[in-house]
């Protein structure tokens, strides 16, 4: 017995040693290995020194050839200094992804939690949720890094504006509103990078793609050749806002420049954009990286320079620090020899990249001894992480229509239920693009099956739905069921990177299937739509046989569970559309290449997004219903007059066409805000989470400067049945009540601004208060 016990402990000890050995082999130090007597005492390895001193020491030891090989995403090793090679390109748009070569799945990390696509999560309008998702994703990223299967630099999030509803990558973005996109950017980045360890980083995020990038491949025009002609006004009050917020509020460690040109200059070769705006104006503490092969694109495709050496020099001198690709690694040394770029400029680029690696702890020796060194396989796909993915989907689902009301369904009264449609039993469709390998899936059919008995018919072979061959089975299923759920919409074969849509209607014969099934259904018919971009479903909105419509975006790995929880009332829907749903006619004579945000009645140009378009819509930005009702009351102490302090050294009487305005740079903006208390009352019998959207409209006569209205604040508010919650909304005057003139100058209109919250509104008058003597 004693010998067996000793043998058992020997086996257990050997097993534990094997595990420890495996972990050490999985992630050896990137640099500064304490076991390497030749390198461990270099100053750049000393954690007691400042980052700047360590970075300068390292760069001073590198040869020109070694420096050039560090300018690319597949950075080469420097063996004589004990530095290993590093792959910069990893992705984490809505979960750790294997799109970039820096991350692989398999072994102890077969998958990672796949959250809903960003457009879906944006519909929650819940900044706390966005940050929490970032924290989970970075936990899993660090765990995979420790296991040798991921990097620490993740080129996410995508914070471009969903300017045109046809854009195939709109699904990756937080939608059409720049304030929402900016808030999302800052929140998700804070979650990814961490906020409680000074200048150190948990992982390094990157906000992309700067700037005015929202066309991939439309009508013979692709992103590699497109010159976005953008006004200073639109740059300042639309396209720059999310990136500014990402850098200045989120403290992101990187910004990625885009493929396209802006006003004739490739973004990755434009010093005004890279050095002037990102680096100097916004004070980026990090590196600027090109979209993959962008430098080669502006040489090979756009023919912006005559030689590859000139392209390399233009990019580095403009402020590019890292090339996703090989172009700079091939051509930079020759560019130096030809006198096109200085070695000192290469040093500046390396300061920015190596500083980020230092902040990540990559030069601090053994990873397991660092703050996040204990994270491992147990921290990936954990039950808590997977439940958060389902909760994120629940919060992002939008109830577009509920006539009757038809929803929620009853597991007792609606039995069986017909589940029909090409997206009714899908898996990878639910995670959209830039996804990894999910931990597992719950399809819509499986989720609904947890509540009731189902009869399943696909209706169409896929979302293309090229014929009606499978219609018969779907119609028969609807005739014999107490309720019918149609799960329709799009997938990556219709909208994706490098695949913009031609129109806004459902593909193939989907509309015909929906209408025929609804007409035949014995019970209520519910339409569930998966898509990234908006869809013109006017026919379903107006069809009395279709009682309810849900938009679920691409709801992530647990999307089917979330859809079922909404359908059966276990969760009360509270999502709101983060983009306008236009009718197909909106696209008449509207090329994707037309970048102007504002409408132009003289040319019948309709304008873009809810801020500048006033025409008919299928569903407006911010639309979303609940199973209960909420009413808003603005508290009596809401301010009616706000004084705007103006520096007397500047003009205060600069005018627009018919109203006074003050330059933001001439106002004392630091603490200038107005606060409004709002009582949100749930008048129904179900608890609910309410999305409070606060819009502002500028004074009448604001001219061509101002949006029709602008979202200025949003809050997620949980309110119990029959309960009341008071919410205090703070609106920064200079940031949210200002407008941008045609010269790109931000101004605060004086006079009566209206604050809109649901169906109530409040008037606030902004009045100048001059400090000192006014110079005229």
UniProtKB/TrEMBL annotation:
Domain Fibronectin type III-like: 690-761
Gene3D superfamilies: Glycoside hydrolase family 3 C-terminal domain, Glycoside hydrolase, family 3, N-terminal domain, Immunoglobulins
Pfam family, one: Glyco_hydro_3
InterPro entries per record: BXL, Fn3-like, GH, Glyco_hydro_3_C, Glyco_hydro_3_C_sf, Glyco_hydro_3_N, Glyco_hydro_3_N_sf, Ig-like_fold
Annotated keywords: Glycosidase, Hydrolase, Signal
Signal recorded as keyword: yes
Signal peptide positions (record): 1-26
Name under which the protein is recorded: Fibronectin type III-like domain-containing protein
Organism of derivation: Penstemon davidsonii
């Amino acid at each position: 017995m004693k010998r067996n016990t000793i043998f058992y402990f020997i086996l257990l000890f050997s097993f534990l040693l094997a595990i420890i050995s495996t972990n050490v082999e999985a992630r050896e130090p990137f640099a500064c290995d304490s076991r390497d007597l030749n390198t461990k005492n270099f100053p750049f390895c000393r954690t007691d020194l400042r980052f700047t001193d360590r970075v300068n020491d390292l760069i001073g030891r590198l040869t020109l050839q070694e420096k050039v090989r560090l300018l690319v995403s597949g950075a080469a090793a420097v063996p004589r200094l004990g530095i290993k090679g590093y792959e910069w390109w990893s992705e984490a748009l809505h979960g750790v992804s294997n799109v970039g070569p820096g991350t692989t799945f398999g072994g102890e990390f077969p998958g990672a939690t796949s959250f809903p696509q960003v457009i879906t999560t944006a519909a929650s309008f819940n900044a706390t949720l966005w940050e929490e998702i970032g924290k989970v994703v970075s936990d899993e990223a660090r765990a995979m890094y420790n296991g040798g299967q991921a990097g620490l630099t993740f080129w996410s999030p995508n914070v471009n504006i969903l300017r045109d509803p046809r854009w195939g990558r709109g699904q990756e973005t937080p939608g059409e509103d720049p304030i929402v996109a900016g808030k999302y950017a800052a929140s998700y980045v804070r979650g990814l990078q961490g906020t409680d360890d000074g200048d150190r980083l948990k992982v390094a995020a990157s906000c992309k793609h700067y700037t005015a990038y929202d066309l991939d491949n439309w009508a013979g025009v692709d992103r590699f050749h497109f010159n976005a002609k953008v006004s200073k006004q639109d740059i300042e009050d639309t396209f720059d806002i999310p990136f500014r917020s990402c850098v200045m509020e989120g403290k992101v460690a990187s910004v990625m420049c885009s493929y396209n040109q802006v006003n004739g200059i490739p973004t990755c070769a434009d010093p005004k954009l890279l050095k002037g705006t990102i680096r100097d104006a916004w004070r980026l503490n990090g590196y600027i990286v090109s979209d993959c092969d962008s430098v080669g694109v502006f040489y090979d495709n756009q023919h912006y320079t005559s030689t590859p050496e000139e392209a390399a020099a233009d990019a580095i001198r403009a402020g590019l620090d890292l090339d996703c690709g090989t172009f700079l690694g091939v051509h930079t040394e020759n560019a130096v020899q030809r006198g096109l770029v200085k070695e000192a400029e290469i040093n500046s680029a390396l300061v920015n990249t190596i500083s980020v690696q230092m902040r990540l702890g990559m030069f601090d020796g053994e990873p397991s001894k660092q703050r996040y060194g204990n994270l491992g396989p147990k921290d990936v796909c954990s039950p808590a992480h997977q439940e958060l993915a389902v909760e994120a989907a629940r919060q992002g689902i939008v109830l577009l229509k509920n006539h009757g009301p038809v929803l929620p369904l009853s597991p007792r009264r609606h039995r069986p239920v017909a589940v029909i449609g090409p997206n009714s039993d899908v898996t990878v469709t639910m995670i959209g693009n830039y996804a990894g390998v999910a931990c597992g899936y719950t399809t819509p059919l499986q989720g609904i099956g947890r509540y009731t008995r189902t009869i399943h018919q696909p209706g169409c072979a896929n979302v293309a739905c090229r014929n009606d061959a499978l219609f018969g089975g779907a119609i028969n299923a609807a005739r014999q069921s107490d309720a019918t759920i149609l799960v329709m919409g799009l997938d990556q074969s219709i909208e994706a990177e490098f695949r913009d849509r031609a129109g806004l209607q459902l593909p193939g014969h989907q509309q015909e299937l929906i209408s025929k099934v609804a007409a035949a259904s014995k019970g209520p018919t519910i339409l569930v739509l998966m898509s990234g971009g908006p869809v013109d479903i006017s026919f379903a909105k107006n069809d009395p046989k279709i009682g309810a419509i849900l938009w679920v975006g691409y709801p992530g790995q647990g999307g089917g569970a979330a859809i079922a929880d909404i359908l059966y009332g276990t969760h009360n829907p509270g999502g709101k559309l983060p983009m306008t749903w236009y009718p197909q006619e909106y696209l008449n004579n509207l090329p994707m290449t037309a970048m102007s945000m504002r409408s132009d009645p003289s040319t019948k140009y309709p304008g873009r997004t809810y801020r500048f378009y006033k025409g008919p819509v299928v569903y407006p930005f911010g639309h979303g219903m609940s199973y209960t009702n909420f009413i808003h009351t603005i508290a009596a102490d809401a301010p009616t007059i706000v004084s705007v302090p103006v520096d007397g050294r500047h003009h205060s009487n600069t005018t627009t066409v018919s109203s006074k305005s003050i330059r933001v740079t001439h106002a004392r903006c630091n603490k200038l805000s107005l606060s409004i208390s709002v009582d949100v009352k749930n008048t129904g019998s179900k608890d609910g989470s309410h999305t409070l959207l606060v819009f502002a409209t500028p004074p009448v006569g604001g001219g061509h400067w101002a949006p029709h209205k602008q979202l200025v604040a949003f809050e997620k508010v949980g309110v119990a049945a029959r309960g009341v919650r008071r919410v205090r909304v703070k609106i920064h005057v200079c940031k949210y009540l200002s407008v941008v003139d045609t010269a790109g100058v931000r101004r605060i209109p004086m006079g009566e601004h209206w604050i809109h919250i649901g169906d109530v509104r409040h008037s606030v008058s902004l009045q100048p208060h001059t400090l000192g003597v006014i110079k005229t």
